[in-house]
Specification:
By secondary structure, the chain is of the alpha/beta class. It is about 35% helix and about 30% strand. The chain has 12 helices and 13 strands. Strands 5-6-7-3-8-9 form a 6-stranded mixed beta sheet, with helices on both faces. It has a 4-stranded antiparallel beta sheet with strand order 11-12-10-13, sandwiched between helices. A hairpin with a 2-residue loop joins strand 8 and strand 9. It is elongated, with a radius of gyration of 22 Å. Bound molecules: adenosine-5'-triphosphate. Adenosine-5'-triphosphate (ATP) binds next to strand 2 and helix 1. Keywords: ATP-binding, Nucleotide-binding. GO terms for molecular function: ATP binding; ATP hydrolysis activity. This is ABC transporter ATP-binding protein. InterPro entries: AAA+_ATPase, ABC_transporter-like_ATP-bd, P-loop_NTPase.
């Protein structure tokens, strides 16, 4: 079953097109990574899916309904980010009880275990938490709600490394026990790639690619070696990124077109072939900067 279907989704803020005819769908019970550079439109998309803001044009269906202000969806869809707001007069433990009354699949046991594991003071207030603790508390709400569609928008903001690792472990354990549709937006693809089943990469408010993570791992590879040899091997390939790392050494990332004998030819020519880390690949695929940061410091 498709949990989200959207076609030609567009969102305009004044003159800025945050989403520009974006189309994709998400099947149920998968963890999808939403990846894109700063300003690509991730938060805008997630807020439309959660029903917080309305699209300008195009079609979007979440659980077969239009999401904006949709009460049917609100108990089954949760959007977690570091701006979640809670009443300032209700202590943390009471907030868990309020959440329990709202989300039908809420798991009190999980919420309490996480609350105690992360050493929250039951009597303190949400607005008094540090940045990392705020994200940790919000994450508890997101996990314990066990919503059929759980959206985490940059959920680890401010968390230290050990808490981030704990969060990803908790997310995976709970997902395996209670499969649901999860969208995880993060700038740290390397941290989350082992969790993901699918990747939706967006650029300038449009879908750039959507595929299983296993396919993305095969999407491209890198060659490094003598300029002329690398050029010969890649002249008929789609080049994603190229860098001269020394006067006669070139590093090139090319799209994998499935040709079998390239490996042999490269070995024969003394050119090294290596896989491309997914986080690097997504950066190169969606690069918007002119040249590299080194150019800023070049006087000529
Ligand atoms: N309320 C708003 N008013 C005007 N412009 C907005 C508004 N919200 C978002 N935008 C613009 O829409 C574009 C997409 O923003 P969005 O926050 O969705 O990107 P993002 O991919 O989540 O970025 P980041 O990774 O930096 O958080 C940006 O150019 C942003 O400035």
């Amino acid at each position: 079953m498709r949990v989200i279907e959207c076609s030609n989704l567009t969102k305009t803020f004044f003159t800025k097109k945050a989403l520009n005819k974006l189309s994709f769908s998400i099947e149920e019970n998968k963890i999808t990574g939403l990846i894109g550079r700063n300003g690509a439109g991730k938060t805008t998309l997630l807020k439309i899916i959660a029903g917080f803001i309305k699209e300008t044009s195009g079609e979007i269906k979440v659980f077969s309904e239009k999401p904006f202000n949709n009460l049917n969806n609100s108990a089954h869809v949760i959007y977690v980010d570091d701006h979640m707001s809670f009443p300032s007069t209700i202590p943390l433990l009471e907030l868990l009880k309020v959440a329990e009354s709202f989300y039908p699949n809420w798991n009190r046991d999980l919420a309490m275990r996480l609350f105690e594991y992360f050493s929250f003071d039951p009597k303190t207030y949400h607005h008094r938490l540090s940045k990392g603790k705020t994200s940790t508390f919000n994450m508890i709400i997101g996990l314990a709600s066990r919503c059929s569609l759980t959206i985490f928008d940059e959920p680890t903001t401010g968390m230290d490394e050990s808490v981030r690792k704990d969060f990803y472990k908790a997310l995976l354990k709970d997902y395996i026990a209670y499969p649901r549709s999860i969208i995880l937006s993060s700038h740290h693809l390397s941290e989350i790639e082992d969790l993901l089943e699918d990747v939706l990469l967006i650029k300038d408010g449009k879908t750039y690619l959507q595929m299983p993570i296993s396919e993305l791992k095969e999407y491209a590879f890198a060659l490094q070696g003598n300029n002329g040899e690398v050029f010969k091997l890649t002249s008929d390939k789609e080049v994603i990124f190229k860098n001269h790392i020394a006067s006669n050494v070139t590093y090139v990332i090319v799209k994998n077109d499935g040709s079998k004998n390239l490996l042999q030819q490269a070995r024969h020519a003394g050119v090294e072939i290596s896989p491309v880390p997914l986080s690097d690949l997504c950066v190169y695929l969606t690069n918007e900067t002119n040249g590299g940061i080194e150019d800023v410091f070049n006087e000529n």
